[in-house]
Amino acid sequence: MIRAVVLGSAAGGGFPQWNSNAPACRRARAGDPAALARSQASLAVSADGASWYLLNASPDLRQQILATPCLHAREGLRSTPIAGVLLTGGEVDAVTGLLTLRERQPLRLVAADAVHDLLDSNPIFEALSREVVPRQRVPLRQWFPLLDAAGAPTGLSAMLFPVPGKVPLYMEPAPGETLALEEEEDGGTVGVALEAGGRRMFYIPGCAAMTPALAELLRGAALVFFDGTLWRDDEMILAGLGPKTGQRMGHMSVGGAGGTIAAFAGLGVERKILIHMNNSNPVLLDDSPERAEAEAAGWQVAFDGMAVRL
Amino acid sequence: MIRAVVLGSAAGGGFPQWNSNAPACRRARAGDPAALARSQASLAVSADGASWYLLNASPDLRQQILATPCLHAREGLRSTPIAGVLLTGGEVDAVTGLLTLRERQPLRLVAADAVHDLLDSNPIFEALSREVVPRQRVPLRQWFPLLDAAGAPTGLSAMLFPVPGKVPLYMEPAPGETLALEEEEDGGTVGVALEAGGRRMFYIPGCAAMTPALAELLRGAALVFFDGTLWRDDEMILAGLGPKTGQRMGHMSVGGAGGTIAAFAGLGVERKILIHMNNSNPVLLDDSPERAEAEAAGWQVAFDGMAVRL
């Protein structure tokens, strides 16, 4: 069995975002029950319900742990059910929470080379002593067991795989041009596959396009958490929130002809959950037509505290 | 007038600390009203109630802003009443929250050289674009106006001053020896004095000793927030939580003959508030003898959301 708990379900900045006065953020800040506040995206996963791995460490991690009883210290004076952290990226919203995990608590820190290189270049992360928190580099496209700090297995296996990601600025197309995407990138954007007891799930919080290879990997999966950042590619521009398209930020849209809902239509995935929603995405609002459209297409929208068993 | 709002009142790790199963942390986690949970220390200060400066940016900053209406975005699509951040140190619990303030929102980032050097050596803080968030280096022991990103005054003036801080490991005394403290340090540990409208307050979240110079500076002050990290110097050792004394960590104790309460006894400070309490400090508990002793000596114990007008 795999258990997954959604620690946070929003994109970087969370919902509401600290400096946003847009209508949806105002609703969330006012406690509107149809505009549920959400912290920044992260999952806790476990094979046995006792030992947990975090998928990314968001800036909200301290509050996420407080809000999640299965992650509370329960033994001795200092302890944690958190065996380790598996990072899918090196962005601020994926790694900042590592700084919450200081206090000389044994954990394992697992990521691909690109992310470890980024951590290595920032001395502040030495707050996690390498003697106590071993850093494990893992290759892409290979399964490996998720271990605790002492090397004991947690019962979970994982594989990191590259997905199409952010387009370098110089590749951005002129208006009217089609965007060229690399089929597979260099590991700057990765998804994670997890297995335990013969069950398999995916966590892909950022993905710029559904390639044929990715579609084959996901086909028939029991559970996929997938990039729900934006509903439309020009959502930020239309809302007056910024000049960037979703493609430019490395995110395919949920709606529309080339969007996520359409791309998953033939894949036979049993349970599909949108995660990493930007505060501009109307799917965050329980009463929006976009939410109705997503649910009608068989998608759920993740919320903080959502628990899934597989 | 100066307004101050306590955004967080606990030392690094907060209360409860994520990996602590000690009795007080269990009480806080269980919602015991006499063991109020507290986030990591920071103040918001303002001369006019409209434009605010943060004193330090704790890892809990996103939740602290959400919990503090005067810091909410209220204009346009993106805005903030936060004009800037003044840092007293470069520790994880003082700077991590800067990463929450990304999103190309104009702010001013003010600190002494030692702290700026530390930020400069960590590329992750480039998430705050220097074009949008100017970094201002200020000298110690000199008053300067706190400005917003565009250079407009907020009505607050500030001065950073060195206080006795952490003792280098090699200076740690052998058992039975007396600890030698430098009278004034190199700016690694600083306090801040603030003025507006002829009123003056101090924020000193870490201080290893009351020197004659510091006592003269604080004498007769209207308001002092002071280092409440530990009640006794050997508190962590007695509780089985670690091998370090308070002196070794750069914090004088609140209680006892050489402690903070005794050191302030003759200074005539009008309002004295303990802040930056470690989760091991019994003064955190409303029903502890130590809380009663502090209150009997004219001290208050800061809590998240505490508002003070001066």
Key structural traits:
9 helices, homodimer, 310 residues, globular, 17% helix, 7-stranded mixed β-sheet
Describe this structure in words.
The structure is a homodimer of 310-residue chains. Chain A has 310 residues and is an alpha/beta fold. In chain A, 17% of the residues lie in helices and 23% in strands. In chain A, the strands form two sheets. The first copy, chain A, has a seven-stranded mixed β-sheet. In chain A, β10 (199-204), α5 (212-218) and β11 (223-227) form a beta-alpha-beta unit.
| Overall strand count of chain A | 14
Spatial strand sequence of the major β-sheet of chain A: 6-5-4-3-2-1-14
Rg of Cα set of chain A: 19 Å
Query: What are the segments of chain A in which pLDDT stays under 50 over at least 5 consecutive residues?
Result: 179-184
Largest sheet of chain A: 7 strands, mixed
Summarize model confidence as the mean pLDDT of chain A.
93
Pair of chains with the largest interface and how many residues each contributes: A-B, 49 and 49 residues
Describe the global form of chain A: globular
| Separation, N- and C-terminal Cα atoms of chain A | 6 Å
What proportion of the residues of chain A is helical, as a percent range? 10-25%
What are the secondary-structure elements of chain A, in order, as H or E? EHEEHEHEHEEEEEHEHHHEHEE
Name the assembly state.
homodimer
**How many H/I helices of chain A?**
9
Strand content of chain A: 15-25%
Structural class of chain A: alpha/beta
